[in-house]
Amino acid sequence: MSGSALFDTFARAPLAFERGDGSWLVADNGRRYLDFGAGIAVNSLGYSHPHLLAALNEQAAKLWHVSNLYEIPGQTRLAERLVASTFADRVFFTNSGAEAIEGAIKTARRYQFVNGHPERFRTITFEGAFHGRTLATIAAGGQAKYLEGFGPKADGFDQVAFDDVDAAENLIGPETAAIMLEPLQGEGGIRSFPTQSLRRLRDLCDQHGLLLIFDEVQCGVGRTGRFFAHEWAGVTPDIMAVAKGIGGGFPMGAVLATEAAASGMKAGVHGTTFGGNPLAMAVGNAVLDVVLEDGFLDEVSRKALLMKQGLASIADEYPDVIEEIRGSGLMLGVKCRVANATFNAALREEGLLAVPAGDNVVRLLPALTVTDADIRDGLDRIRAGAKAVSASLASAAN
Questions:
Q1: Alpha-carbon span 124 to 141, nearest angstrom
Q2: Helix locations, the chain, DSSP H
Q3: d(CA 180, CA 187)
Q4: Which of 123, 176, 245, 362 is 20 to 30 A away from residue 342, measured at CA?
Q5: Which of 291, 308, 328 is the last residue of a domain?
Q6: Which of 264, 291, 318 is the last residue of a domain?
Q7: Is residue 236 located within the same domain as residue 257?
């Protein structure tokens, strides 16, 4: 064997980090990087947040894991808090976003089954979606690059173009169980579903006896300036998958559902070994302590406006590099006129970390606790990166 002992499944940047503080990471060579990727929207409260550290350390000294064969008080508390702050009546805890999506799909299918429609198992999804890496969730996402080489696509998923609600309506048939979407697509290129589209989809589900599933794995938990992104539209789902930011860096996710939608999920029909263990629940509760504190989400919106205005100014300065600024809250996208990998590499050279996405976009997903000073610093680095790319374009033209 030569090279790494790891699977070659990641195209990794030649960087390794040894510690972090706030919005900053320190590489093993000592260089500091301003992180506007936050582990792809995972490190919602940045690095080494004192409240998260205290909760983790306190729980780690007591109990890490017990089976779901027993009561786990931290689960009950976190579930009650999520129910109190959302549309949901029931919660199931998972280890990841993909597992949460799987749970959401199973919940929808089981709902149809117990309500006398076992033939209803299909889910309508939208182009550009990213729902996870399991066999079912890559089928739900429908992207060819993730499906290739893994055998026949898992049955039960029908996809239409992004925001094509007419096509979705036309696809509804006797086997349709649910419609699933990300209110704000992340991997797909920071693309928002218009409020009118979300309302139409809600109406279609109500008319046809379908369940509406929102994937808020990336756009949820304060990322857009509301606790969940769909709140901006005033449209509520029947089921929602959550992960990433809810754990603040600790692996955890959740399926949230109404009482009716969860009615088929009885003892023995679904489960998880690690999901909802005491360590995860301690951290999840600590995250909510911060995110649900009075004024926190207002601050996210204020900081987002500061950042978006700065990005718009940079786009005006370098229209040869930047085509458009997209997104909501602290989930922003830079649509590039050059290859997004080129722009992302230029940002990294300036000591700023971002995340590539579809549709030739670079995602900016800073911690929700990012400071005004860090935003201004980040904008300076983004401007410098755009300047370097622009100069390179000019040099190539000559």
A1: 10
A2: 38-41, 50-60, 73-85, 97-114, 135-141, 144-147, 165-171, 195-208, 278-291, 296-317, 340-349, 372-397
A3: 15
A4: 245
A5: 291
A6: 291
A7: yes
